[in-house]
Amino acid sequence: MFTPPSAAQRLHLNFNENNLGISPLARQALEECLVQVNRYPDRPHGELVAALAAHHGVSPQQVVLGAGSSQSIHVIIEAVARRAQDRGQAAQVVMPLPTFDAGLTAAAARRLPVRGVPLLDNLEADLAALQAACEDFSGQSIVYLCNPNNPTGTVVSSAELKAWVQSAPDTFFLIDEAYVEFVDDPRFTPADAWVREGLANVCVVRTFSKLHGLAGLRVGYSLSTAEDAGLFASFVPEMPVNLPGLLAARASLTDTEFQRRSLEQTLEAREIVLETLDRLGLRYVGPNGNFVFHELPHSVGDNRSYRRRMRELHIVVGRDFPAYERWNRLSLGTPEEMRHMTAEMMKVLGALE
Ligand code: PLP
C-alpha cells in the first residue's frame, strides 16, 4: 500500500537503495539469528563464501567478503598499492569522473595520486583516455571502473574493456559491478567470467545492497585470483561481515523469486521515469542501474534548486555531481512511488517550461 510522502516520512530517491525491501527468506533468517548473535560467525562466513563461489563458478579461495563492497574497494586499492610499493614501484589510481566515491576516498586515505578522466560528451567513460593515463605512468596503475557507472548509469563495452585488460597485464583493474543485474545495454557482459577464465590482473566487486536490498547490513565481496584474494584477505579484519548480514545474504542469494520481483519492479519504475522524461523532452543516459541520470530544464536552475523544490514535496532526490549541475541522479523506488514522484515532477518541471 502506497502512502504519499509527508514531512514525517519523506520519499527517499537519493541513495540508489531498494525501496521494495528485502527477501522474505532473508527476513526469516534475520529473525531466527537473534538467538545466535552471542557466537562468532566463522561457519556462516565460510558458508556464504562457499555459496558465492558456487554461484560464480570460482573456488572459495577466490572470494573475499567485505563490510559492503565499499570496504572491498578500499582494501583492494590499499593492497595493490602496497604490493607495488614493496616492489619499489609508485602507484596511482585511474578512474573516470564522476564515479562512485569509494575509489576516490580509498585513494585519498592512502595518499595515492588519482588520475581522474572526464567522461565523453555522451557521458560514457573514455576508455582511450583512461588507457593513455595508465600508459603515461611508469609505476602501478590501478583502474577503478564502475560498470555500469554511478551516477551516469552508462556502461563501457565489455569487449573493448577486456581487450585492454588482456593487453595490459601490468595494470590492475578493479571492476565494480554493483548494478550488474540492472543492465540493458547489449555491449555489457559481466566481468566475473574473466575471473573464471583466469585473467590475473582483474578483480570484480559485487554487493548485496542493490538488487537484494541489504544496504543496511553491509555485505559485499570481491572475486579475483586466489593469490590476490589471499593478499586482500590479509588487509581485512577477520570476519568483516556480522552474523545477520551473512545469514540474510545467503538466504537472499537462494531467493531467485525475490530477485526476479526486485528486478521486474525496478525496470517497471524505470519505464515510468523514462516516459515522463520523454514527455518533458529531457535527456537521460544509460540507464543501466536502479537510478536514472537525467538533465534538468534551464528554467529550474541547477540541481540544488531542483532538489529544494522536490523536498518541499517531501521527495528527496540525488545530490550534486560537480561539472553536472544541470543533471540529477534519480534513484528508482517502487512503481507506485515513481508514479507519485513523476506526477509531482511533471508539475514542477512541466510547469516551468
Ligand atoms: N559501488 C557502486 C558503484 C555504488 O554505487 C555503491 C553504492 O551506491 C557501492 C559500490 C557501495 O555498495 P556497498 O553498499 O556494498 O558498500
Automatic annotation (TrEMBL):
It is an enzyme of class 2 (transferase). SUPFAM superfamilies: PLP-dependent transferases (SSF53383). Its EC number is 2.6.1.9. InterPro entries: Aminotransferase_I/II_large, HistidinolP_aminotransfase, PyrdxlP-dep_Trfase, PyrdxlP-dep_Trfase_major, PyrdxlP-dep_Trfase_small. One of its GO terms (molecular function) is histidinol-phosphate transaminase activity. Residues 13-341 form the Aminotransferase class I/classII large domain. It holds the Pfam family Aminotran_1_2. The keyword Transferase applies. Keywords: Aminotransferase, Pyridoxal phosphate, Transferase. This is Histidinol-phosphate transaminase. It comes from Deinococcus proteolyticus (strain ATCC 35074 / DSM 20540 / JCM 6276 / NBRC 101906 / NCIMB 13154 / VKM Ac-1939 / CCM 2703 / MRP).
